[in-house]
Amino acid sequence: MRRFRPALLLPLVLPLTLLLAACSGTSSADSSGGAGRTDGKGSLTLDIGDQKGGAEAVLRAAGELKDLPYRVKWSTFTSGPPMLEAINAGAVDLGPVGNTPPVFAAGAGSKITVVGAQHGSSEGEAILVPKDSPLKKTSDLRGRTVAVAQGSSAHYQLIASLKKAGLTLKDIKVTLLQPADALAAFAGGKVDAWAVWDPYTSQVLRAGQGRVLTTGQGVVNGLQLFVAGNAALQDKAKSAALGDLLDRLHRAQNWVHGHPEAWAKVWAKDTGLPYEAALDSVKRTQGTRVPVAVDKDVVESEQAIADTFAEQGLIPRRFDFADYVDGRFNKDLPPSTSPARGYGKATSR
Q1: Extended beta strands in 100-243, E state
Q2: Residue 278 shares a structural domain with residue 148
Q3: Do 64 and 18 contact (CB within 8 A), yes or no?
Q4: Rounded Cα gap, residues 102 and 311, in angstroms
Q5: Does 337 map to a domain?
Q6: Tens digit of pLDDT per residue, the chain (349 long)?
Q7: Contact 96/84 with Cβ under 8 angstroms?
Q8: d(CA 237, CA 288)
Q9: Which of 40, 242, 285, 303 could tie 124 with a disulfide, CB 3.0–4.6 Å?
Q10: Which range marks the domain in which residue 291 is found?
Q11: Rounded to whole angstroms, how far apart are CA atoms 246 and 93?
């Protein structure tokens, strides 16, 4: 295997460490950012957790923060797990995360409830290999070293992809690394493959430093989840405001689908991603999401993740994920099995 020069990919680390760590079950910096700006008016205030280039940015870009009849105070977090800790503590009322952090929070008995969902393509959930790697299919990973963030959505995708190929984690050499370290290891030729998520996938492909061995299509659920605090849901006024905010988030996601280039420009500016990589990620993953109901299929697919991690000893107990789901805001949303929107295949240089 040719060893790549680390300098070619290391400049990607800084902007990407700001992005989408919600997919991770662990965090290299479990702390929230400072108090963000406040939108809206009225006596009721919702405390909303967010990440760079997340809910606030898309709502603002789509014009959905105009004429809010309540106030929204934004708090920025480095990843999903500390955001869920704040929700459990009652410091945050709602926040968007990937499909894995709620499993870990529920496994720890946190006071959280999944109240919203969006379903998209899993093309960005990928196992990457260096461009000139001899590996051609998932089964070729036998005996190879694979980097992955422990307890992340990529960790589950790796397990599921191996299973589909007739392998288990015991058949490979797992190197548990957070994305910045995994990126350096991948660039330096210290690992044979890297299981990761978008926008890392899109930026590595755009930089021409790797290719996709396999993706999560057909093996992971492609869900982004909106998680609320139990105390907020028990407050009638807050619950109504949360329902309105979820409606706005879903409309904003529909706006992204109709304006991928405009959203990619906003997202790139907010996060530091190169515009081309941001647009690739929008077309490959983010812009494909469809607002869907939190239904039986959501519960079943999340239960499968929970059971898998329980079997691996990564969460402390088995539990029923249905106990952490509330469908009160489903309204007329389509079922969670609704197909993701497509833009055609995103390309890389």
Answers
A1: 112-119, 126-129, 145-148, 173-176, 193-196, 211-215, 223-229
A2: no
A3: no
A4: 17
A5: no
A6: 333 333 344 344 434 444 443 344 444 333 444 456 888 898 999 999 998 888 999 999 999 999 999 999 999 887 788 899 999 999 999 999 989 889 999 999 999 999 999 999 999 999 999 999 999 999 999 999 999 988 788 888 999 999 999 999 999 999 999 888 999 999 999 999 999 988 889 989 999 989 999 999 989 999 999 999 999 999 999 999 999 999 999 999 999 999 999 999 998 998 888 999 999 999 998 899 999 999 999 999 999 999 998 988 889 899 999 999 999 999 999 999 888 787 655 444 3
A7: no
A8: 32
A9: 285
A10: 31-120+222-324
A11: 12
Helix (H, G, I), strand (E, B) or coil at 214: strand
Structure letter (DSSP) for residue 340: P
Domain stops at, among 191, 215, 239: 215
One domain, residues 133 and 174:
yes
* 242 and 302 co-located in one domain: yes
Sort 213 into a burial class: Cβ within 10 Å, 0-12 / 13-18 / 19+.
buried
With beta carbons less than 8 A apart as the criterion, state whether 145 and 182 touch. no
Residues 86 and 226 in one domain: yes
Claim to verify: residue 200 and residue 242 sit in the same structural domain: no
Contacts of residue 60, defined as CB under 8 A and 6 or more positions apart, other chains included, come to none
185 shares its domain with 108: no
- Give domain status of residue 349, yes or no: no
Distance CA(220)–CA(153), nearest Å, equals: 9
Q: Which residues contact 71 (CB under 8 A, 6 or more apart)?
A: 38, 39, 40, 41, 42, 44, 45, 46
pTM: 0.83
For residue 126, what is the domain's CATH number? 3.40.190.10
Statement to judge: residues 141 and 116 lie in one domain: no
Of 202, 205, 224, 207, the closest CA to residue 284 belongs to 202
Q: How far is CA 287 from CA 91, 174, 189, 312, in A?
A: 30, 31, 32, 32
User: Has residue 329 been placed in a domain?
Assistant: no
Do both 243 and 110 map to the same domain? yes
Which amino acid is present at 278?
Answer: A
Q: Is residue 200 part of a domain?
A: yes
Last residue of a domain, one of 189, 215, 241: 215
Quote the CA–CA distance of 221 and 114 in Å, as a whole number. Answer: 15
